[in-house]
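Worked Example 4.2. Read the sequence first, then its structure tokens.
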Amino acid sequence: MKPFIIALLVCMMFFFTGCGQKDSISDINSTAPPAPFSSSGVIDTETGGLILVTSPYGAFDETSGKDGFYKLYPNPKGGCNILYADYATHSAIVLCNRPDCLHQDAECPSWFPFGTGSIFLNAAQNTLFCIGNADAEAQRAETIWRMDLNGANRRILYQCAAHERITDAIASDSSFLYFSVSSVNSATAAAEKRLLQVDLQTGESKQIHTLGPSDWLTGVCGERLILLYSQNMQYRYTLFSPSDGTETEVFSFESDPDKPESSLKVSQNGDFLYVFSPNQDATSQLLKIDILSGESALLCDSFPWYGAGTAFVQGFYDHRLIIDQSDTRENDPAKVRHYRYYIDCETGSYTESSLTYSQGALTSFVTIAAESPDFFVVSKGVQSTPIILTSNDGSTYEATFGVPEYAFISKADYWSNTPNYQDLDYGNLIS
């Protein structure tokens, strides 16, 4: 099996999503940042207003655009490559226009010297960024590269010191990137975190705020960053202005470690906070709080609830909040039940998901991997596929990997739990 095919199979085992093939790399014009967790509502593509360009949890190895998405995947010869997938054609290409390229060294515009990294688009939607460790003998410094949408004109935008790493979400406007850099003070051994502003053109950086090791850049509201401060089970959401450094608290709460069942669960999207406040009967109220005005509305007074520790917000799509929960009240792993709910962020009505797939004894939810205006790309299964791998000593051996089965589904069908799938055609990429 060709090295490229092996690499693609390895990556699909984990996170690969989407589809698409262009006749030429130069035709690629993917322009939209990731749809999940959109933090600023309608995006102004002309001015490139401040938006969150990653998830609130940080950057990952794929970034979704309007017409397709970019994906980092490992190369078995070392390093990794950028894959571009197009929604219209439902097929994928390596982001390289060099004929007969093996895609395994610096001569390939899709190749990077690290095995794992992350990727995202800027707010103006015309530049691609990649984060990974530079290939240096003395130090493997975490680095941000910028490049054109077709992978051309790559250059280093920012490079961390050897003891630093990029953490948290990343925000961008037409001029700057905003992100946090964590480090450990060599003299005191204390963890530190700096909030940086980096010029998109020059790479010039400056520190605009100091954060604690448990504080986070987590979102955007208007032209301000949303920061979450955490200390001794006390939490504060604030609005921070990059332009003048002013900061305003908008919401705070406290968790009781002795009563986890009573802890709040808070998630942010756009100009709103969504707060799950537990009742006493395995239900929760759901409040929607306007960050700017402070006004709150009760969306739901009896949403099923089994504790903040078992709840995880998957994302926001189509004005809906997707949340996973697990009922662990019987303290028996065999009796744990898992749920996924779609909550309408306008009405508070909710629907339980029944879109699942089974792999052996394990049942998993069909999960959204990418989004277009009309459909989702979802993972709806895993296919065991044999591949040939090379050992460190040069010998080859056969292994089996689980290749995700991706499919397209209309948004209407997804929300109504109707499994009308159109399977993704991988073409000759896995043949």
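Now turn to a second chain, presented in exactly the same format:
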Amino acid sequence: MKKALKQLKLIISPIFYSLFFCIYLDSTSLYANIYDEINKLERSDLFYAEDLVFESLPSGIILNEEQFVLPVISNEAILTYQSYLEFTDVIDQYQKILKSGGWQEIKIDGELGIGDVSSEIIILRNRLMMTNDMPENRGINDIFDIFVEDGLKKFQFRHGITPTGVLDEMTKNALNLPIENKLRILGANKTRILNYMSGLGSKYIFVNIPGNYLLAVNDGKIEFQTKVVVGRDERPTPILSSNIYEINFFPYWHIPESIVRQDISKAMQIDSDYLEKNNIYIYQDYYYKDTVNPDYIDWYSDEPTLFKFRQNPGYANSLGVAKINFANKHAVFLHDTPNKSLYSDGQRFFSSGCVRVQNIDDLIQWLLSSNDSWERKKLENILNVAKTKTVQMKEQIPIKLGYLTAWVDDGQVHFREDIYGKDPVKNMNQ
């Protein structure tokens, strides 16, 4: 009987799946517009922002549309008292699940997808229904049908996992995280939201590091949102509050000593022409007058750290076309990048601490809109001229770099990997 049902399902599921998928996309608006055309550049011609590159990029990159999902789909700001109250509601929901016994562990080897039959699918259905990822009383218990697939996609989307609808190892581990751990994560992030709310004005920038996104908020509404790339675990982006005071167009990149030691020296050991290829020059001091011949430097010692390194402006500059400054002791900032392909990754922890911003021209327009007589045409002229220029903010805009591994948006709770190990539990996807 089960075999016959599976065969029947395999015949009819594509028809239902296509119809359901169209409805699903329309109702949830999961997919963002693709704003950037992937540049077909060689890695030898550019940096990963503050990072060095040793290999060549493929001549062309084909991206899955699902990789362009943005984590926030409503226009309601996250750092609000209403969001704080929604956290309370979600915690109550999860506490009820805990009191009822929690959820069973899903035990499978390999993957499960549409048309598969397994007793573990019964457990999967119950797990997805507990957190409202799929409705009750739909489909056949032990068959992986379109209802299970759709529910799994919603779960994956909420957890920052590419929504394939396939029960793979990463998704299984996220599903199996104990309810007690989920409650600890929710409690920690409820407190964080309350702390981040303090000192905010009506207009501000919020960067959620684990979520890999930036929000521009005005009067409680999200007016602009975009993807960001943040620091990898060994070079984390700091948590801080500050004020944006200026924007540098076509900036020089003054390369930090730590990157000279950790990256530049290694690159020069591999390719003696690396600095020339990337338009980087060595100077005796901060006056940047007297250049130093790289052939006279011992790249296998600490000698390179005695000099100053600077990358000239241009479209291949590691900071891209613009750098947004705010006061902080960590020497981090927001900036563009020539390597647009990194935004296609679901989890974007690649930088050395600074925050790379997708569609930075739109963010700059939003920031400068309060400047006297500012208009989009001025921004376009600056970018067309391609000369180094600094624009001061008439009104400094508050910015918070925060750390939310869970948040509530449009009634749905989202979870992200605790990349820096700050939650009171172990990594949720391990």
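Notes for the reader: DSSP finds ten helices and 14 strands in the chain. The radius of gyration is 24 Å.
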